[in-house]
Structure formats: structure tokens, C-alpha cells
Amino acid sequence: MCGVYSPAFECYNNEVMTPKRKALLILFVSFVLGGLAASFIFPQYVQIPRVPDVPFQLGLDLRGGLHLVYEADLKEIPSPDRDNAMQGLRDVIERRVNFFGVTEPSIQLQGEGENRRLIVELAGIKDPGQAIQLIGQTPYLEFAEYKENYEEILAQNQQVLDTGEGEIENPFQSTPLTGRFLSRADIGLDQVTQEPFITLQFNEEGSSLFEQLTEKNVGLPLAIFLDGALLQAPIVQGVISGGRAQITGQFTIEEVQKVVRELNAGALPVPITLLSQQSVGATLGAQSLQQSLTAGLLGFLLVAAFMVLVYRIPGIVAGIALVLYALFLLSLFKLIPITLTLAGIAGAILSLGMAVDANILIFARFREELQEGKNLGAAFQEGFRRAWPSIRDGNITTLMVALILFWFGSSFVKGFAVTLSLGILVSLFSAIFITKNMLWMFWDTKIAKITWLWK
Predict the structure, then answer these.
(1) Do residues 74 and 128 both lie within one domain?
(2) Considering the entire predicted model, what is its pTM?
(3) Distance separating alpha carbons of residues 110 and 86, to the nearest angstrom
(4) Is the confidence at residue 264, as pLDDT, over 80?
(5) Where are the alpha helices (DSSP H) in 235-281?
């Protein structure tokens, strides 16, 4: 009894229709999905009803925008609380950026200990100055209490005022209560003077901290600073529970509205300083995108031409499979969606090489089987079986490296790792399902008998 991989042609006569029917079904589904993918990617050229028009998400280097690096001041934050403070800072800046109307902002944290930075990437920004001003003017709200030796400090400050010699020392010290615990800020009006003031409502943790501060400082002033400026230092008359506080002063209604709006958008848990900024123009981004697309298309055509020249019919099959591979991959970029950068496009182009590598392994094994005298069907089966371990191991190791790059890399490296990983997975589908089943369609045809087209 002939085995599945027997080289005897007659052994496939009764079984050949089954794999061909399976191949036909798989190819039909693949080409239908490819058509839908093409319509999804290029809706302006291929219009299919009810297929949404979803744009590609382009990164800073392709769309243009703003790259900002901020340094966080963590000197006053206890070491155990620094991670939470930085995460709170990231959340606040993200809310601020969302208020500005930026789509797909990239906000990342870097560093450890006291040396930590915030990286903000805003793609598509038309007014970089306004964006910088928006982030930089976000208020830093903090409550401060008297230092233990405040009486001595006050006496020294008075002496400095009297003599005009020396420097004034701040008698207040920071407390854990900052704007990170703020739930909401509102505008209030004094019923007698009709002067506006600011009301603050803290969250549950902030309410507990505020109650502890007022209990500790009964009879003493509790200073309120906004962006380092002393707004007021009211004397605590008693313990205040419920987490509500007021900021009064010589404010205009416009000043109060501005502060309330910014506080509600997010009071920063720690102060930040702008270290550097880099603006990428939309024209430069468009040029980079065009160059990347040209490189990708040229690479695709060269690879396809190489496959056809070297492997002939299998090379043509591989070219068609690579077209479907590209359509499926670009569709995934839109569906997920993936923010495409120059590094991400490089990862996608590299995965194209991985897809070709899988086909080359398959075709090389296939040729070896033909040269040993096996018929086309047996060579198909044995070639794929022998090539699979190499394809599997090579792609798994590349995926592992991509995961490591994603886990430890920066934003650009992560973009490269994501597109490379997706490309590898799609290339496996392309090689194992599409290429294999397209080759099966030549089984028992006149083309299959033309030896030079296969060897």
C-alpha cells in the first residue's frame, strides 16, 4: 500500500481530487479576503459597499509633529511614591493633550530614581508653540505647612527685612497633598463682596491627607501654592473633613476661570521642566513617507523578479502569495490600528524578506525531491514537510527577538518590533496556506509535465 509521500504517481490518482478541492476552497476564501483587504486599504480605487474608510495612523516622523522631552522634579517625592507620581504625571499630560485635540499621542516615561523624564510625541500638530504652552502652563498645586523651626525662620526673616541684609527663607515645607489628589475645581462667589474664589474637592485619599494636615496644624497657617507662587496661607481653625478647600485672593473672574479649567484638565503631581523640543514639518514627513513607500515597492518588485527568474512557476506563485501577504498585513495595520513610523515600515519590509525566506526553503526542498525522481504531488508534500521545521524555528526565534525589543525598546524600536511580529505571522500564513495550495492547483495539469518550469 502506497504511503502519502510515496513517489509513485498512481498512488495519488484516487486521492488527488481531495487536496485539490481543499486547495480550491482555501484559495477562494483567501482571494475573497484579499479583495476585501484591497478595498479596505484603497477605498478610493476599489469601492465595496459597507467597507469603512479607515485612514492609516501615521507617526510623528511620517505625519509631522512635535517631540518634547520634559524632566520631572522628584526631590520632594518620597522614593516609594515616585512611580505612582510619574504615572499620575503621564495620565495628567495625556488628558491635557486630549483636550488639545491630538489623535494618537505618544507619552512615555524614562529613567529611574530622581532622574526621570517624560517623552511627549504629538503627531499632526499645526501650532507647536500653543501645544508647548498648553503643557507647560499646566498648574502645579501643592499645600505646605510650617517647618519645625518656623519661629526661628520668621525671626530671621524679620531681621533681614529690618536690616536689608541676608536672604528670606521659606518657612513652609511641602506636604504629600498635591494636585494629584484633586477630583474637581469649581468657581465660587463670595456672597458679600461678590469676589470670585476657587473651590477644591479632593478624592478619598486626598480628603484623608487634608484632614490629617488640618488636624496637625490647628492654629497654624496652611499655605497653598500654585506653580510655586503663594496664593494664600489661611490659619487652620479646626479639623476639616470631607476634602473641601478654598483658594481666595485678588482674582479676576477670568483668572479664576483659567485656573479652574487647567486644574480640572489636570493639576500636575510633580513639577516638570522642558529640556528639548524637536519639530518635524508636515512636508518633511510626507517626503519620508513617499520615500518609504517607494523603497517598499521597489523591494517587493525586486524580490518578485528574483523568485520568478530562479524558481519560475513556484516563483510566480510566491509573487501572488506575497501580494496577498501585503494586503493582509496593511489591513491589520488599519484594523488594530498600528501607528506607522519609519522604523515600523522598516519592520514590515524586513518581514517581507522573512516571507520570501520561507518560500525559498520550501522551493529548495521541493526541487530536491523532484531531482530524486519523485512526481509533482509527492514533491509538494515532502518539500513542505521537510522545510517546515526550518521555517518554524527561524520565525519563532525572530519573534522572540521582536518581543524582547518591544519589551525593552523605546517608542521607535517598539514600532519596529510590532510590525515585524505581525509581518512574520502573516508571512507564515502566506507560505503555509496560500503558496502550498496554489501549487496544488497545478497538480495533474499540462504545466506540471513541463519539467524546466519546475526544476
Answers:
(1) yes
(2) 0.59
(3) 10
(4) no
(5) 253-266
